[in-house]
Amino acid sequence: MSGAAVSLWMNDRNGLETLMKRIWLATTLMLCGLAQALFVGQVARAEDEASGAKLLPKDTLLFVSVPSIPDSNEEFEKSLTGAMFHDPELKPFLDDVQKKIDELSEKLQQEIGVSINDLLEIPQGELTFAVVERPARKLAPILIVDYGDKKETVDKLLKKLHEGLEGDIAEHSVEEVDDIKVHVYTFKNSDPDNPFKTLAYFCEDSTLVFSTEVAALKEVLDRWDGEGSDTLADNDIYKYIQDRCKEESGEPDLVWYLSPIGLIQSGLNMAQSVVPQAGVAAIFLPTLGIDRLKGWGGASFTGVGEYDSISKAFVFSEQPKGVLEVFLFPATDLAPPKWVSADTSVYFGGNWNIPQAYTAIETMIDGFQGRGFTAKQLDRAADGGPGIHPKKDVIDLLDGKFHMVQGFEENEDGVPTQQFLIAFDVKDAAKMKKTLAKAAKAGEGQVETREFNGETIYEVSAGGDQVISLAVAAGHFVVTNDTPTLEGMLRTDSQGSLADSPAYKKVAKHFPAKVSMISYSRSDSQLKALYEMLKGLDNSEFIEGIDLQKLPPFETLQKYLRPSGSFTVPDKKGALTVGFQLREGDK
């Protein structure tokens, strides 16, 4: 398709530039809709024999599958986002967007004989993308598309593909694999550094399968009857992850999986053919504990129970060591502290095993530099400068619990800037205050101090009008660019705690009693500043033909936005994170 576009405009640079701008525009607009349709829409269960996980080898490195695109689109219409796109007040603006898409569609119709709608209607069932290492030391992407009764459209596209590649660009050949014709295009004059030398595909049972390697297609064909046992669906790690990510009251609209250690090892294998020394890096993987990161995957659902959408992700790592021990978050009671305001846009909290993290880092460093090396370096640091011992005067004073608050505030030019506040619970506030005072004194005039409500706030310029404030407030060590929130922590008459707000309580009731991390988000407050900034743009600064003044008041969209939350809990084989948006909820 892109080859045809280039040929059409080859002798007209202005035309080519215009075409690329329009393609960018249409792609951007379509992706916004498709992202919702693919990742939010609920789909019906695909038949087992159509499952991409059963067509791929057990050691598949990356797997993303939508069981049914049409069902996904249908369920998307029932979601809050789908309802928003049908709001009458948004229609005038969307009509402008549709006109731009229609313009591109007309050009595509002239180029390749099919419209954008024809292209979007091709997937009639499962859509799967995967990456495998076939043959050895070559990563091969695989795309599997169930096109159902859209054979005529697919034939048109394949014919255009053939016309665009055969001849000067590639040599065409056909291989027979189990009586199925595999079309192979071998590129001529290919860049030696380009890992993709071929493009291959086959069609069978109303399914189109593409890859850059014939060996990868043969792997799929070996499992075409669905009776093989050496498949991704039989991979114990993949099965465990998907079992932990299932939702009893609904089927997933999206399933994904990747093998972190597999991808790393495959990357090193490929690099080794060019740089032999790259193989040495593999020796350090067990030392760093990277080899324990066996899998990461998840699933997404829409319209399940009280949720408008819910997604689950699981990190598989048995007996973590090395680097992985740095990121251990034990389950405990977690909630926003009383000083977190009820009108907070985003809150995130967690419980970090800081002593274990320090021990893991010290062990790794000493493993390379010799036993006791880290401790000696920290003692040496304490003997110089402000006289602060990084471990005794900072790390050992941290409790492990931390909190982060985010929001947006418009600057003098009306541009929204992100505000943040990070607070770490401390075991001994008095000692932490002494540490902070020592650090400020060593700043030699670069740190300004001021008193507020009996406490000292230290301020450091971050360039321009940005100021980073530090303090020990309400039993926390605080770093922020949002001084008003910090001052609110130090007041004794603060009102309206997030933890007591109806909106947070509706989200929090879905949290387990003991969690490693939690989050709460009000998407309406996050999006409002950005939305108003978009509406304030001059049409000449945006896209020709789309009138930004037709955008409705933000309140039109706000009624479709609900509070969302997430939580993470540890598991004997890793950790599970669940994120969700409610169907209903207080603003």
Short structural summary:
36% of the residues lie in helices and 26% in strands.
Question: How many β-strand runs?
Answer: 20
Compute the number of structural domains: 2
Poorly predicted runs of 5 or more residues: 1-50
**How large a portion of the residues is in β-strands, by DSSP E?**
25-35%
How large is the count of helical segments?
A: 19
Q: Which term fits the overall shape?
A: globular
The percent of residues in helical segments reads 25-40%
Radius of gyration of CA atoms, rounded to a whole number: 28 Å
Describe this structure in words.
This protein has 587 residues and is an alpha+beta fold. The protein is 36% helix and 26% strand. It is built from 19 helices and 20 strands. The chain has helices spanning 2-8, 13-39, 69-78, 80-85, 91-112, 116-120, 151-165, 214-222, 236-244, 260-272, 278-288, 354-369, 373-383, 390-394, 429-441, 483-490, 502-508, 523-535, 554-558; strands at 62-66, 127-133, 139-146, 170-177, 180-187, 198-204, 207-211, 254-258, 295-304, 307-316, 346-351, 398-410, 416-426, 447-452, 455-461, 467-473, 476-480, 517-522, 563-571, 574-582.
